[in-house]
Amino acid sequence: MQTTKKILVTGGAGYIGSHTCVELLAAGFQVVVLDNLCNSSPESLRRVAEISGQASIPFYEGDIRDPVLLDRIFKEQAIYSVIHFAGLKAVGESVEKPLEYYDNNVAGTVSLLQAMQRHGVRNIVFSSSATVYGDPHTTPIQEHFPLSATNPYGRSKLMIEEMLGDLYKADPAWKIALLRYFNPVGAHESGKIGEDPQGVPNNLMPYIARVAVGQYEYLSVFGGDYPTQDGTGVRDYIHVVDLAKGHVKALEAFLRGDVPNLLLINLGTGQGYSVLDMVKAFAEASGREVPYRIVARRAGDIACCYADPALAEQLIHWKAEKNLVEMCQDTWHWQKHNPQGYN
Amino acid sequence: MQTTKKILVTGGAGYIGSHTCVELLAAGFQVVVLDNLCNSSPESLRRVAEISGQASIPFYEGDIRDPVLLDRIFKEQAIYSVIHFAGLKAVGESVEKPLEYYDNNVAGTVSLLQAMQRHGVRNIVFSSSATVYGDPHTTPIQEHFPLSATNPYGRSKLMIEEMLGDLYKADPAWKIALLRYFNPVGAHESGKIGEDPQGVPNNLMPYIARVAVGQYEYLSVFGGDYPTQDGTGVRDYIHVVDLAKGHVKALEAFLRGDVPNLLLINLGTGQGYSVLDMVKAFAEASGREVPYRIVARRAGDIACCYADPALAEQLIHWKAEKNLVEMCQDTWHWQKHNPQGYN
Fold first, then answer.
1. ipTM of this complex
2. Could you read off the pLDDT of A117-175 as tens digits, one per residue?
3. Residues of chain B found within 8 Å of residue A102, distances taken between Cβ atoms
4. Cα separation of A278 and A56, whole Å?
5. Cβ neighbours of residue B159 under 8 Å, at least 6 residues apart?
6. pLDDT given for residue B1 in this prediction
7. B130: which DSSP letter?
8. DSSP B217-248
9. CB distance from B258 to chain A under 8 Å?
10. Which residue numbers of A are catalytic?
11. Least enclosed by CB within 10 Å: which of A306, B128, B193, B224?
12. How large is the average pLDDT for residues B72-94?
């Protein structure tokens, strides 16, 4: 599909955002990034440009809660759609500082949607999460499963889904894709962009990678007595490049016009791996040891979570293509060449 | 209880807000009002002062979404607690304009709570609604019943309840009362303050009152085939002065310190009346005819909703005292003397 349509990517300097910029450019879209850099580096955009053969990526440093800046962007740029990644994402931090999460995520999204409405831009792809399924009664998880949340981060995602649903009901001309991500891992195969968490990583893969390079002594595995094949938690890890392509596919589906205007779609592989599966695969891919210790379960963690990805294939013709070995190899490649992330 | 503690009443110029100011002053509290007047008149505050024997009511005209104004108020005034009424409240409008509801109600409350946190004010009484019970599986409704919402207005109330619950979990020093109102009606017995809806009233009582004065020809009764005693919807109507006193009682309970720091309380009478009960009672109280016509049900309306008010009595020693005749007489008194509301 040939297009030069311009996409505003909020949070475009972040982990998933930067990979999505690469895939958008590869598919012929133009990108404009808005990011407040509270949890990301502008260096990622320099590298996106490098990977994509662009001189630079148009970039606005600022916040989605700033209506004046949003008005400026929508006036200066002819935006076809927004892909909305901007938001805080650490579950534990959200429990400590709930108001920051409701302000950044929920109030921020309201501010963004109001600006879009003012400027007649009514296409949005929203970065939701499998966390909205809470503790699912069964797996694989299908999109119609009941929704719930166990922490402010998850509740903020759920609230935004509800607001977007209400917006669609009020004005069915909106095209809204709610993409529920499972567990993004990996990095671009170039090794130039990847996940660069500030401080101690909250997620498994960057933590494993830091153990592999010797930055941490060992991995704490939270719980070895879950009702899973080896007692450790099972998740649906998905390569970030596959995930990024899912966003492009959602936009292309809206452009074709052969999907409902309100899309709720899981982006996962459909395959569950345990923590120990990941440790083993990463050790093999990196040729390094990944020492671990089983410790107590972490409050709020569930035993098992993986997607039924059939609807994404059916509606937006998207399917994850990269396997566990590639997820580990690409993470390792990024980590090895960027031991300090973008710094 | 003697106190001169100062209470910031957001939305204090509105219907429930103005009556609550009167009861706060009568109980020895000081009040400061913040209101953007988007749906209320400053005349109500002049009358609150008159009723209460005050020269005037300290008033800031502005919005809870304005952090600069909030900082100014909290600096200039030594606020003990906030009573938070400010918000949009029309169910039908919320379906048409969901973003306005999420902005005013949800983002507005986040802004207010963040300002309170900045200034170390951690007591809040929040104006919630029985709408958070959705369509209850049984009546009377108790506070532990499951929560749900069927429109953006209700969802905004539910989201705020959830945010306040998360805030309490993050910092249990917060004192938070979620008061779930049933159906406020009536007016101050002086006839000086009352409900003054802009445009066509959304609620039953002000509509009936306008039919009684001849402003409208007849009342449309939405549905005559509900499974209730006379086929019309049953609600728990509560006199606004009783409701206002509930807020004072919640503050007094926090001051005594003999209640949990997170209070979830129904404010209702425990008595359900049908639409036709209300029509009959109002006709008697006013000596006027109230013609009505049964028309189709309204989407989203439920058959029957009334409170179990026992918990309020147990925890904050509050109980509704005014009966249906007083509700109708006081509404009529207000309507007769103020046929154009505050204009």
1. 0.94
2. 999 999 999 999 999 999 999 999 999 999 999 999 999 999 999 999 999 999 999 99
3. 106, 110, 163, 166
4. 36
5. A106, A159, A162, B102, B105, B106
6. 52
7. G
8. S-EEEE-S-SSSSSSS-EE-EEEHHHHHHHHH
9. no
10. 153
11. B224
12. 97
Set of chain A residues whose Cβ sits within 8 Å of the Cβ of B96? 170
**Could you read off the pLDDT of A205-243 as tens digits, one per residue?**
999 999 998 999 999 999 999 999 999 999 999 999 999
DSSP state of B141: B
Taking an 8 Å cut-off on Cβ atoms, the answer to whether A117 and B95 are in contact is no
The closest of B324, B126, B162, B340 to B242, measured between CA atoms, is: B324
Of how many residues is chain A composed? 343
B64 burial via Cβ count (<10 Å: 0-12, 13-18, 19+): buried
A169 CB within 8 Å of a chain B CB: yes
Q: Which residues of chain A have pLDDT under 70?
A: 1-3
Measure the CA–CA gap between B260 and B143, rounded to whole angstroms: 14
Of B97, B106, B163, the CB nearest to A170: B97
pLDDT in the model for residue B343: 87
Of residues A99, A113, A166, nearest to B113 (C-beta):
A99
CA pseudo-torsion sign A52, A16, A126, A130? positive
Contact A99 B163 (CB under 8 A): yes
DSSP per position, A66-109: -HHHHHHHHHHS-EEEEEE--S---HHHHHH-HHHHIIIIIIHH
Closest CA to B268 of B136, B149, B175: B136
pTM check: above 0.90: yes
| Percent of residues, chain B, with pLDDT higher than 70 | 99
Q: Which residues contact B131 (CB under 8 A, 6 or more apart)?
A: B91, B149, B150, B153, B154, B157
Contacts of B169 in chain A (CB under 8 A): 95, 98
* Residue A82 identity: V
Q: Is B93 on the interface with A (CB under 8 A)?
A: no
Cβ separation B99–A107 shorter than 8 A:
no
pLDDT at B198: 86
